[in-house]
Structures are given as C-alpha cells and as structure tokens.
Amino acid sequence: MKNKIKHLLKKNNFIYEYSSKMYKKAKTTNEKCFFFFFYNLFRIFPIKRNKIVLCSYFGKDYGDNSKYIAEEIINKGLDYDMVWLLDKNLVDDNSLPLQIRPVKYGSIKSIYEMATASVWIDNARQPYYVRKRKRQYYIQAWHGSPALKKIEKDAETSLSVNYVNQAKLDSKKADLFLSNCKWYSELVKSSFWYEGEILECGSPRNDILFFENKKTQDKIRNSFNFSNDIKIALYAPTFRTDYSLDAYKLDYEKFVDKLNEKFGGEWKVIVRLHPNIQHKAEQLLLKDNIVNGSNYGDLQELLSIADVIVTDYSSLMFDFVLKRKPCFLYAVDVEEYKKDRDFYFSFNELPFTLSKNNEELINAIEKFDNQKYLENIEKFLMEIGSVEKGTASKMVVQRIEKVTNY
Q1: DSSP conformation class of 208
Q2: Whole-angstrom distance, CA of residue 387 vs CA of residue 392
Q3: Is the whole model's pTM more than 0.85, yes or no?
Q4: Residues of the chain with pLDDT under 70
Q5: What is the dihedral of CA 190, 191, 192, 195, to 10 degrees?
Q6: Which CATH class for the 46-207+393-403 domain?
Q7: 92, 250, 298, 390: least surrounded by Cβ within 10 Å?
C-alpha cells in the first residue's frame, strides 16, 4: 500500500515533494498534525463507490453490528470492497471472511481507505482526526441500546472534555443512526448531540438471536469443548471504573448446583468480562465447569447459545431478552455504582430480578417463574417500543445499496 501511494504521489512532483516534507514535519511535531495532513492529502484520490470501511470498538474485534451488516452483504453476493479496521495484533490473526480486507487501525493505510470509501460503519465514536468528504455516508451503529447506565450527554459530567468534543464531532458527521426501539430513538435525539436521520430497523447484531444456527452452535461448543447435552450459563458483568474485580463475587459452585436443581441437566459457566478487564478473567476461574470466554470474538454468538445469563449493568440484558430465556441481575455495588453513573430505568421497571448478594441470587433462581417472566418481557418490549424482528441487517444493507446506487 505504501508503495502504491508513493507511486501515485510521484506522478506529481510538486505534491510528492510537498507531502514528503510535510510528512517529516508532522511526524516530528505531533500526532494530530500527522493524521490531519494525510486526511487532507488523500482527498486528491477519488471516492470509490463500492468501498465500505467498517470498524468495531476501535479495532478491538470483528463483531457487533458492523460484523452482521458485512455478513449480510456477503450473503447477498454484493460486489463491495469491504475493509475492516483492526488493532495491529489482529491484522494477521483474525476471523475475517475472505471477502473482507483487514487494515491496521490508525495506520496511514487506514486513513487512505477511509478517505476513499463511499460508506463508513462504526459502533463507537470515531477518532478526532477523521474528516468526512462530500458524497461519503456514515452509519453510526452504536454498540449498546437500550441502555441502563446513563450515557453521552446524560453522563457528561463523568466524561472527559476530549471525549465530549469527539462525540459531538462524530454525531455531526453521521448521516444515519440505527435504532432498535422507540425509547432509544428518543435517547439519540436528546443525548447524542445528533439531529439527523434515525433508522428504526433493530440491531443487526441481534438478528442472530432470532434464528437457530447449528454451524455457529457447533463452533462455540467446540471452542469450549462442550458436548451437545451441556447447558450453558453466561456470566457477563460490565467493568468498574477502578478496573477491580471486587464486584465479581459470584459463588460459582452454589450457582451451578442451583441451576442443576431448578432447570435440570449438566451446566457449565462461561465467564465473559468486559474488554477493559478481560486480561484478568483467569483470576475468577476456580472450577472445572467454569471457563473463560472473555477472549471469544463475538459476544452475540455466546448470547445465542446461552440458556441462562447473569449480568449487572450491561446493556446485553436487553439483547438477551429477545431469546425469552432467563436473565438474572447480580450486582453487589448498586448504590456505589449509581453515584458514578445513574440509571435510565429503576430496577423495578425491568423484567429481571436484581440480587445484591449470592444468597439473593440463589433464591431468585429457586423462585423463578417462567410464565410471569415471559409476561414481564412482553410488557417491557412494548413499553420501549421494540422494533426487533431479526431483519435489521437486511434493512441496513438496503440503505447502503440505495446510497451507493448499487
């Protein structure tokens, strides 16, 4: 890629000499000048109508909404040149389909790809240096909706000034926000510094929760060496601002015993920690029937195969509710956590039981009433105006085809 860019620049001696001089200057002054320079420089190249650049969590994985949009494009056999921005450690070691090109996140090459792409898709805020051109279309496929924890403008006092400025700039660039419910659409309007179009299509990442996929299930079971008769509980708490593990005091042995007793069968627990603390997961794994799933690439695949989940404040509870399977909230630090970042919903408004210690969690499992739980789920989904139908990816790809005149 570097040689290709160099060759193109050399066709114009003035541009080549100027860019070489500015490159050296930017590299030695500061990173901001460096990135701004190349974004402006690459504007000399035409936008490619069929190029799409996708990213998830700042290049940390191949997953979330962006993944399922990309795979719908592949399934439809559409001729798009798809580029996925990945952390440097993943560029040569990833699970990308052959139809997607990996490019290092934050590299000169990534700047070139973004500057010449027709469509951008991201599930988080883009870096400050990203500059959109006319005729480029940016789809903001935010990673957590609805949300329990207050976010963006509603949590502005807890956010850095740099992040707030970056978020405002990102929303200004966005052409489309994706939404999975009426409640979230209103949140985007009021709290994301965004005044543009919202497509109420559902979350592409949740399409997988509507259909049984034996190939995916077999892949997951093989990854963890689980036989087909094993029942799976997923423990997936969010992180704390001090990055400690003090809040994760789940008594795995009593938890598994109660699942066996209440629901029958043999149970295994997959522990999935937030990416910010996933390197600490091994510290929590004490028994043979507890396995580390923190490094498993796609959380939605784990949700698709789980029979029960336990979380605390993570928005994944709102994804899993679509499976109509048991979800339990276990949080030992509610009041303390609430001081740091308040909630949109009271726990009484949610269809899940909140337990503040292991004894309460075991009791909640013992008293679990599936019929009442299903009724509460339907009531909650109606109240938030859910539009999830398992067709979100299709609707987004239809929009991409329209804006690119495919």
Answers
A1: G
A2: 9
A3: yes
A4: 1-32, 285-286
A5: 10
A6: alpha beta
A7: 92
What residues contact 100, with CB distance under 8 A and at least 6 apart? 54, 70, 74, 82, 83, 84
Asked if 40 and 131 touch (Cβ cutoff 8 Å), the reply is yes
Query: For strand 308-311 and strand 327-330, is the pairing parallel, antiparallel, or unpaired?
Result: parallel
CATH class of 212-384: alpha beta
> Domains of the chain: which residue ranges?
46-207+393-403, 212-384
Element (H, E) at 173: helix 161-173
CA 332 to chain centre: 25
User: What is the DSSP code (8-state) at residue 98?
Assistant: T
Tokens of 97: 């389909």
Distance CA 64, CA 61 (A): 9
Q: What are phi and psi of 171, to 5 degrees?
A: -65, -35
Taking the alpha carbons of 26, 30, 33, 37 in that order, is the dihedral positive or negative?
Answer: positive
- Which amino acid does the sequence have at 169? L
354-399 pLDDT tens trace:
999 999 999 999 999 999 999 999 999 999 999 999 999 999 999 9
Whole-number Å distance between alpha carbons of 319 and 68: 15
Indicate if 212-384 has the same CATH topology as 46-207+393-403. Answer: yes
Separation between Cα atoms, residue 334 and residue 365, nearest integer Å: 20
